[in-house]
Structures are given as C-alpha cells and as structure tokens.
C-alpha cells in the first residue's frame, strides 16, 4: 500500500453519497484521514451521526478532496452549487484505489456487455489460480477488498459516471466494448458520454493496452480525432461463429454475448491464459441474474429474463437471434433512443408493452412489429400466456427485455427482474 505522498492520506475529505461505494470509502479512509459524510437522504445521514455534516457546515469547511458516488448528479443534487465551485477536488473510489495500490487492473466499460465480460474474465483468472478481485459496478465496491497482495489483479466494471468523475485513476488494460446512445439525460450530450468512456484510454501510458470494438462508429470517430499512448487492439466482432467451435454454452448464442467473447479471447491471449481452461470456464458460465438469463426452458416454452436491458440496443442484440418471440417491454425510455431492427427482422415478433410510457414505446415500434399495450406488467404477462395457451403446438419464447430504466416502478433492474420471476412462477408451476 502506498502511503508516502498519497493525495488522500492525512487530508480533510468529504464523502458525498452513502451507498455501497460511499460507505466502503469511509471505512477505508476513516483512520487515514479526517473524513466527513453527507447524503441527500436524511435517514441515511442519521446512521452515521458521529461524522455526518450539515449543508451549512459544508460551505464553511475547506475540504482537500471530495469523493462522490457515481449515482450523484452534480447538476441536480443538493450540493450542486458547492460541487460546481470545487470541481477540481472531486474524485471517486477508483481514484482512491489507484492512489494506494500499484496492482494491475483490467477495466471494462461500454454501453452493453460490461458485467458479463467482467464476470467471465474474473472467473477465468480464478480458474487459472490467479488472485482476481471483481470490483466496481459489479462485485464488491473498489475499497472493500481485503488482503490485497502484489499479484492481485483487479477486474473492474466501470460506468461512464465513474470514469467521468475520476481524475487520477489509470488501468493497464482498458476495454471499450461498444458505444451507443445512452445516459444523455445525465451527460447532456452524446459527445460528453463518449468523452467519459474514453477517459479510460486518455489516462493510459505507453506500457498500457486498450481493446476496442472494430467498426463501432463512435469509437472509430474518436480514435481518428485523438492520439492515445497505449497499444490499441481493434477487436473484430463480425462473422464470429468460426471462432467459437469449441463453445457449446447456449448463453452465447446471441450476437451481443459473442461480441463479449471475442474481447475475452483476445484479452486472455494477452494475459497468457491457458486456452483449454478458458473454454472450460466459458462453457460452464451460467450467466448473470437478469441479463439474458434463461429462467425456464421446457418442451414448447423458453423464458428469458433480461431485466438489465435499459435501451433498445441491448434488447436488439438478443431479438435478432430469436424466432417468434413475445417481447415484454416497458419502463422509462432513454432520451433519443431508437429501435434499429428492420420490419423484416421483426415480422414474427410481438411486443407487449406495459407501464406509464407505453404510448411512447408504441409510437416507436408500431411500424416494425405487432404491438399491444397494458397498464402494468402482470396484465402484459397474462396476455402473453393467453396467446401461448392457444398455440401449444409450436416452440414459444417469452423475452422480458424492458429497453428502459426501471425507476418508474422499481428500485432497480434487480428488483424488476425479481418481480418478473415471481409473476412467471404462477404460470410455469403448472407446466
């Protein structure tokens, strides 16, 4: 652990946002620095009464550093004005991690596929006796890991929010899987969103390596306009089937997951992982909860729970590889999101849209496929099973992939996915 000249050691620090990353930052720094806490939620503040600080007192203290959680939106939070005045002092838990440890890290970002790619790489490293820690958006918060040794390698899933707020974080291996329109309501423009992702490459040195999707329009454009110090590998993700002859796992039938695999195989080569052991890891991978997860697969019915989907692009990756799918979707649509599959590709799919934004979704989809609207998710599911029960002679697929944020009715995508599973049990227990 690096202590000498550490920019967070012995400093006056404000931690803003007391979710998982904020609490882990507090526990990590409380004996190393003078730490104060604040959260927009008053009830959460009360749990940390000894170190919490009021809005008025925050204005009077000259903090050396401010560590904010990725979920905090500088433009609309309670400390917005204060943060705008102190932008140079803002850091993340990834900055703290980097300042205290010299360990190698593989940091994965992109609009879709981050969690799956990170988890498989972590599993592969563990299966090959490497001391890997899965942290960031997936796994444990960055600063909650214990017993970190010199050979420990961090596999980090990083969101655009984390990268945007980070100032000193750097990763030896950087991965940008893809970039499509997303989080514009937070980043204000597509340009800002792309810039946030590319901070990962911008911070790298000549001894670093970057892996990016070849042919991705936004990635290609950014690479042409800027020079980066790292060695950049452009990953070919089209015509993938020839590379996966030894992979029998059904989970990797979708184009999106094949793309994830193409990155994994290239990174594994750079890390000198044993290929036979890697294939074994891939074939036993069961997927992550609520991410293209097959929750029921018998006789004439397959049900896929893809609650993690918050954009059309995410759902499209699976839809284009399905036949005759009953697609259940709904939530809060992403600003400027477009559905890019053609009418021909959707001719055998039916969309069952639920929730307050169903009219908006219907308007986007009505010229591409058959659309039906419902007040809520239970009504949509009931309608799907009503149709399926009248067509038991063929193989049916229910694809729950909301293509929108979950916050209209749920805490998060996990809460939404769990609710879907509970509703489905009513129908599948009889099958």
Quick recap:
The chain contains 16 helices and 16 strands.
Which helices and strands occur, and which strands form pairs?
Blueprint (H helix, E strand, L loop, with lengths): L11 E5 L3 H10 L4 E5 L3 H6 L7 H6 L4 E4 L11 H6 L4 E2 L1 H8 L4 E5 L4 H14 L4 E5 L16 E5 L2 H6 L7 E4 L7 H4 L2 H13 L6 E5 L3 H9 L5 E5 L19 H16 L4 H10 L8 E6 L2 E5 L6 H8 L5 E5 L20 E5 L3 H8 L4 E5 L2 H12 L7 E5 L12 H16 L3
Parallel strand pairs: 1-2, 1-3, 3-4, 5-7, 5-8, 6-7, 8-9, 9-10, 12-16, 13-14, 13-16, 14-15
Antiparallel strand pairs: 11-12
Helix pairs in contact: 6-11, 6-12, 15-16
| Count of discrete structural domains | 3
Question: What is the fold named in CATH at topology level of the largest domain?
Answer: UDP-N-acetylmuramoyl-L-alanine:D-glutamate ligase
Characterize the overall form. globular
- For the termini, the CA-CA separation is 56 Å
**% residues in beta strands:** 15-25%
What kind of sheet is the major sheet? Answer: 6 strands, parallel
Task: Describe the structure in your own words.
The chain is α/β, with parallel strands linked by helices. The protein has helices at 20-29, 42-47, 55-60, 80-85, 93-100, 114-127, 160-165, 184-187, 190-202, 217-225, 255-270, 275-284, 312-319, 358-365, 377-388, 413-428, and strands spanning 12-16, 34-38, 65-68, 90-91, 105-109, 132-136, 153-157, 173-176, 209-213, 231-235, 293-298, 301-305, 325-329, 350-354, 370-374, 396-400. It folds into three domains: 12-90, Rossmann fold (3-Layer(aba) Sandwich), CATH 3.40.50.720; 94-284, 3-Layer(aba) Sandwich (UDP-N-acetylmuramoyl-L-alanine:D-glutamate ligase), CATH 3.40.1190.10; 293-428, Alpha-Beta Complex (Protein-Tyrosine Phosphatase, Chain A). The protein has 16 helices and 16 strands. Strands 6-7-5-8-9-10 form a six-stranded parallel beta sheet, with helices on both faces. A six-stranded mixed beta sheet has the order 11-12-16-13-14-15, sandwiched between helices. A four-stranded parallel beta sheet has the order 2-1-3-4. Strand 9 (209-213), helix 10 (217-225) and strand 10 (231-235) form a beta-alpha-beta unit. The protein is globular, with a radius of gyration of 23 Å.
């Amino acid at each position: 652990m690096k202590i000498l000249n550490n920019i967070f050691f012995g400093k006056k620090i404000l931690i803003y946002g007391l979710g998982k990353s904020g609490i882990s930052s507090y526990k990590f720094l409380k004996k190393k620095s003078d730490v104060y806490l604040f959260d927009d939620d008053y009830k959460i503040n009360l749990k940390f009464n000894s170190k919490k600080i009021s809005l008025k007192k925050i204005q009077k203290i000259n903090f050396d550093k401010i560590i904010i959680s990725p979920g905090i939106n500088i433009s609309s939070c309670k400390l917005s004005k204060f943060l705008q005045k102190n932008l140079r002092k803002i850091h993340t838990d990834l900055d703290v991690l980097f300042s205290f440890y010299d360990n190698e890290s593989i940091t994965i970002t992109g609009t879709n596929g981050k969690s799956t790619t990170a988890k498989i790489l972590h599993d592969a490293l563990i299966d090959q006796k490497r001391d890997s820690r899965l942290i960031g958006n997936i796994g444990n918060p960055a600063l909650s890991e214990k017993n970190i040794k010199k050979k420990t390698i961090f596999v980090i899933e990083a969101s655009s929010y984390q990268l945007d707020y980070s100032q000193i974080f750097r990763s030896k291996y950087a991965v940008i899987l893809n970039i499509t329109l997303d989080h514009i309501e937070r980043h204000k423009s597509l340009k800002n969103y792309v810039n946030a992702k590319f901070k990962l490459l911008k911070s790298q040195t000549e001894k670093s390596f970057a892996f990016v999707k070849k042919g991705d329009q936004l990635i290609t454009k950014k690479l042409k306009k800027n020079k980066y110090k790292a060695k950049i590998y452009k990953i070919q993700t089209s015509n993938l089937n020839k590379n996966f002859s030894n992979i029998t796992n059904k989970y990797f039938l979708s184009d999106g997951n094949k793309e994830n695999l193409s990155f994994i195989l290239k990174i594994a080569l750079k890390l000198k992982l044993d290929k036979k052991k890697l294939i074994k890891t891939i074939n036993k991978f069961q997927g992550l909860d609520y991410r293209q997860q097959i929750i029921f697969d018998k006789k004439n019915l397959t049900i896929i729970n893809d609650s993690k989907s918050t954009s059309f692009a995410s759902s499209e990756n699976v839809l284009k590889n399905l036949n005759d799918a009953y697609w259940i979707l709904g939530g809060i649509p992403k600003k400027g999101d477009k559905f890019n599959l053609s009418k021909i590709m959707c001719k055998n799919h039916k969309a069952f849209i639920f929730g307050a934004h169903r009219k908006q979704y219907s308007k986007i989809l009505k010229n591409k496929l058959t659309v039906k609207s419902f007040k809520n998710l239970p009504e949509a599911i009931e309608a799907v099973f009503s149709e399926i029960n009248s067509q038991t002679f063929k193989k049916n697929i229910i694809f729950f992939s909301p293509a929108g944020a979950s916050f209209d009715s749920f805490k998060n995508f996990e809460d939404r996915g769990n609710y879907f599973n509970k509703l489905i049990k009513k129908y599948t227990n009889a099958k």
